[in-house]
Amino acid sequence: MKPAFLKGLKLGNGVLKDALDRDLVRVEALIRDSLRSDQPFIAGLTETVLAPHGKRLRPALVLLAAEQPGASSQAALLAAAVVEMIHTATLLHDDVVDAGLQRRGRPTLNAASGDGAAILMGDFVYSRAITLLVEAELTQVLGLLATTVHRMSVGELMQLDLRNQGLLEQEVYRRVIYEKTARLIEACCATGSILAGAPAASVAAYADFGRNVGMAFQIVDDVLDFEADPHTLGKPVGSDLAEGKQTLPLLLAHAAAGPGERARLEALLAAGAESRQEVVDLVRRLGGPRAALADARRYGEAARAALGRLPAGDIRRALDATVDYVVEREH
Amino acid sequence: MKPAFLKGLKLGNGVLKDALDRDLVRVEALIRDSLRSDQPFIAGLTETVLAPHGKRLRPALVLLAAEQPGASSQAALLAAAVVEMIHTATLLHDDVVDAGLQRRGRPTLNAASGDGAAILMGDFVYSRAITLLVEAELTQVLGLLATTVHRMSVGELMQLDLRNQGLLEQEVYRRVIYEKTARLIEACCATGSILAGAPAASVAAYADFGRNVGMAFQIVDDVLDFEADPHTLGKPVGSDLAEGKQTLPLLLAHAAAGPGERARLEALLAAGAESRQEVVDLVRRLGGPRAALADARRYGEAARAALGRLPAGDIRRALDATVDYVVEREH
């Protein structure tokens, strides 16, 4: 089965797509090998964690930025495995924090095996990712990714703090999504480029690209929480509101509303769980998701502008198609 | 306030104790500096996490094994801060996993601020510890400690798996406490010694010492859960049983019991929460805690034997006194 990212990528170039796919299969094998355990309990949990294939966007970006898809260096494959492991560990903890019951159309590990198993498996996967980088002596990448993980925890803590508070400033929302989501995608692109031995200007262009893709990615995620088909999305719509998270569609709907609708929106938010569907409906009616999608597209354009600083070719075309995928995806 | 470890250490040599104390104050400052945040929410949680001083056994062992207490190198102070941060992060997650409400006489962070805050603060503290080692380029120590953290998560997962199962084999119990507790104390002693540039034979002796101290430490912890004064212990007695954990006092009581008492113990265990006090009483009556303490003392003697491979002097005397402290402590 091709990862969701490759299925969704509109590349004229089938050769590159197949090459990337071959590498991602090797990345998958690296992840499984690294998480192997002589303890049947741990092996079973690992299977549950790895079974629902994610989009594999992050490892694909490492491999693209390393610029040798199909013939990636061992270091690039390993770094690709590590970023996916970091992402997986983060999801395991986030789902406990948010009491999330479904992800990728399946029960979350906390729902299936309890909070304790999900917390400890997050620690197990994350700490293994770090040891992989140490063993491979990828010091610069280790420095970047360790800092990234630390800042992601800051983003998650900020988000926790902001739950059920008064309406957020947009700038606060943007800082939170940068820390919790965009930083890792930025780091993926920088990592690939560093491992390819690219000059500093290219590493910076890749990082800029990744940061903007990351911002677009999270905003689209937040839009989908208002708009998606729950079946395609793999989890219920309105989950963010249920978890007390204010996202850009809500903030832009509020900004666009006239005084009456604004007061109504605030009252519905204050009323809590029982008026959630009404909030979703009102945010949609006020054009919040559409405006947020336009915002995501602006990040997409900024990402394309960063690409303009890189040499033209197949890789740049693939990264351009990645932007389309990120802003047009339906789950 | 002197850390609990120093207060409990019976050293003839007040000079060494004061020197170690000065270093531990610097370690404490390093931890606080490293966890500083511009986010008031995070700063507040950090304060709650750091306020109840722990024993500081782990950083003290790093500093003793580095053999320059009072004049420790920056690397040794940093490594001492890191091991305490790792320990702290582990406790934060363990308390969520165990739904522990009290530690060191105070509410746990999960009790005070919720599971989400405790999980994310664990991630925040642990990931910062890793970045400290990366920034300081302490590569060998990073490799050792990253592996240690990974194996600790394996130990915690094994413990979770074994909850509420049939009676454990003693060897399984020993493997779990090695992974979850003794490995870090072993790594502390090896770390100090590595940073002092000690020859391989000394690093191995320090590691052996630490492993045995760690085993003794955990067994005494498990004894205290049956025997301690809850006020001195800072948490309720019988917590392990409440969390479905089978520890050495129980296993040795079971092994020592005649057929009738053995059947009664098994029936009480199967009956669950309501018969917990009766289990505690029966385990005590069967001499489980006393036998486990004798077992801990044997690890203490093995630790002293490892010390015999190190040069005589103040440091060795302090490590010897540490063994006394570990097996005689009341909390």
Beta-sheet strand percentage of chain A? under 5%
How many independent structural domains of chain A?
1
Order of helices and strands of chain A: HHHHHEEHHHHHHHHHHHH
Distance between the termini of chain A: 17 Å
Which pair of chains has the greatest number of interface residues, and how are they split between the two chains?
Answer: A-B, 40 and 41 residues
CATH H level, superfamily name of chain A: Farnesyl Diphosphate Synthase
In helices, the fraction of residues of chain A equals over 70%
Strand neighbour order, sheet with most strands of chain A: 1-2
CATH-assigned fold name of chain A:
Farnesyl Diphosphate Synthase
Biggest β-sheet of chain A, characterized? 2 strands, antiparallel
Structural class of chain A: mainly alpha
- Judging by the overall fold, what is the CATH architecture of chain A? Orthogonal Bundle
Secondary structure: number of strands of chain A: 2
Instruction: Summarize model confidence as the mean pLDDT of chain A.
Output: 93
The total count of helices of chain A amounts to: 17
Keywords:
1% strand; 331 residues; homodimer; mainly alpha; Farnesyl Diphosphate Synthase; two-stranded antiparallel ribbon; globular; 17 helices
